[in-house]
């Protein structure tokens, strides 16, 4: 496993006493991953944790919004930020487990000189525990795309299955793939992956090679036999030689990889 960048901010370096989430030692894995993602994101990002709606936020959101609340946020706010309050129905859909994208959404932002309307591409991601129970919602505000974004262009979106047993790595890659417009499911082992592949037609299988139980290579071999048009991408520690030893076509990227490497492969895949 690769080390975090030297300039990344750890949850243990932040004072959480102004919030109602307690010390990070007591957090579930879902909150630890979401908080790390939020704190280190260059984009304005918020987390709504629990139905009591504890609000966590990063420095980029504070700079954007002009809120007096500083990272990592505070207790239940008297007035919700516009990223939450503009569409209560959207939040309820996220609480029910839907990942949502709203390109070019107008929000009313409070500034020192009054209220101004700004547009963002909004992404809402349910934060679930291992049983699929939604514990919170992650919201990211991205600059509006100058042209139609992949998330708004269904002809460019790919249906992808990610197979990764490291839950932190799985979460991060899925969020990045969804942010660039793809329809993503994720599982942690080969047996579960084969169940998903049997039930749904995917465009891409992106799998780690080393998995508990059935290996990623065997999962891909069975998947290609089941769905010959499936594109396979491996995450591997030895990507240079892996694809030369296979009896089916596949791409591979070497761990640790950048999302740009994965995106470059995905851009070569024809869209339906």
Automatic annotation (TrEMBL):
<keyword id="KW-0597">Phosphoprotein</keyword>
<feature type="domain" description="Response regulatory">
    <location>
        <begin position="159"/>
        <end position="270"/>
    </location>
</feature>
<feature type="modified residue" description="4-aspartylphosphate">
    <location>
        <position position="208"/>
    </location>
</feature>
<dbReference type="InterPro" id="IPR050595">
    <property type="entry name" value="Bact_response_regulator"/>
</dbReference>
<protein>
    <submittedName>
        <fullName>CheY-like chemotaxis protein</fullName>
    </submittedName>
</protein>
<dbReference type="GO" id="GO:0000160">
    <property type="term" value="P:phosphorelay signal transduction system"/>
</dbReference>
<dbReference type="InterPro" id="IPR001789">
    <property type="entry name" value="Sig_transdc_resp-reg_receiver"/>
</dbReference>
<dbReference type="Pfam" id="PF00072">
    <property type="entry name" value="Response_reg"/>
</dbReference>
<dbReference type="InterPro" id="IPR011006">
    <property type="entry name" value="CheY-like_superfamily"/>
</dbReference>
């Amino acid at each position: 496993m690769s080390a975090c960048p030297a300039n990344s901010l750890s949850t243990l370096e932040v004072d959480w006493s102004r919030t109602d989430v307690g010390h990070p030692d007591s957090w579930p894995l879902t909150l630890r991953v979401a908080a790390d993602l939020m704190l280190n994101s260059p984009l304005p990002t918020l987390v709504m944790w629990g139905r009591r709606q504890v609000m966590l936020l990063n420095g980029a959101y504070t700079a954007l919004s002009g809120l007096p609340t500083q990272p990592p946020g505070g207790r239940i706010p008297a007035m919700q930020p516009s990223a939450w309050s503009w569409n209560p129905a959207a939040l309820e859909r996220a609480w029910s487990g839907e990942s949502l994208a709203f390109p070019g959404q107008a929000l009313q932002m409070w500034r020192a000189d009054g209220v101004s309307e700004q547009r963002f591409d909004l992404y809402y991601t349910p934060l679930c525990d291992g049983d699929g129970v939604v514990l919170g919602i992650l919201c990211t505000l991205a600059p509006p795309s100058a042209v139609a974004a992949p998330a708004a262009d269904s002809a460019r979106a790919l249906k992808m299955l990610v197979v990764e047993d490291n839950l932190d790595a799985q979460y991060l890659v899925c969020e990045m793939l969804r942010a660039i417009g793809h329809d993503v499911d994720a599982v942690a082992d080969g047996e579960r992956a084969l169940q998903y592949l049997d039930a749904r037609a995917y465009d891409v299988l992106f799998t780690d090679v080393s998995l508990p139980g059935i290996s990623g290579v065997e999962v891909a071999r069975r998947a290609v036999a089941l769905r010959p048009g499936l594109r396979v991408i491996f995450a591997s520690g030895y990507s240079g030689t892996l694809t030369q030893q296979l009896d089916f076509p596949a791409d591979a990227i070497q761990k640790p990889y950048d999302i740009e490497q994965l995106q470059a492969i995905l851009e070569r895949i024809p869209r339906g």
